[in-house]
Design goal:
The chain is mainly α. Helix content is about 90%, strand content about 0%. It has one domain.
């Protein structure tokens, strides 16, 4: 839950910085996107990708289970 909270805060900050057009804001947005991706790969990503793959596997096997 902590990873999702951190990503939420980072995306809110990125959205706020999107209203400015300075070069330093653009650099900060890039850095925050990289941090958001890092947090995703460390916390949420490893838990989410196997679930998505398993659900897809179940959806493909459903016709076999019905027959």
């Amino acid at each position: 839950m902590g990873g999702m909270t951190i990503m939420f805060v980072l995306l809110i900050i990125i959205g706020g910085l999107g209203f400015t057009s300075s070069k330093s804001a653009q650099t900060a947005i890039g850095i925050l996107f990289i941090l958001s991706t890092l947090v995703n790969m460390i916390t949420t990503g490893p838990a989410c990708y196997p679930i998505v793959a398993y659900v897809f596997l179940l959806r493909n096997d459903m016709p076999l289970l019905i027959q």
